[in-house]
Amino acid sequence: MTAAFVVPTVAACIDLVVHCVRAPNGQRSVGQILALGRRVENGIIESGLIFDTVNGKLTASETAMPAPDKFVAAGYNVATLMGEP
Fold first, then answer.
1. What are the residue boundaries of the structural domains of the chain, listed by start?
2. Distances 19 to 9, 38, 42, 65 between C-alpha atoms, Å
3. Rounded mean pLDDT, 63-69
4. Which domain of life is it from (predicted)?
5. Which alpha helices (DSSP H) does 14-74 contain, by range?
6. Alpha helices for the chain (secondary structure H)
7. Burial class (CB in 10 A: 0-12, 13-18, 19+), 34
């Protein structure tokens, strides 16, 4: 397998990326959650911010929606996960 096929193959296998941060006291917390898209251009994987830490609280982003079909197939309702009524 050539390098040109490795990135798209890996991107297709990962749905979410969770970025963790460590405070000076050693405590870890979630800083951001990204959804990976299906497109790869020039070695860059398309991604969208789903959750971000704002004022110390993990908050849903209005700019990106993860692939609902994958969540439905796994038995999850995306609107409920995003905190929508």
1. 3-81
2. 21, 20, 23, 17
3. 66
4. Bacteria
5. 68-73
6. 3-13, 68-73, 78-81
7. buried
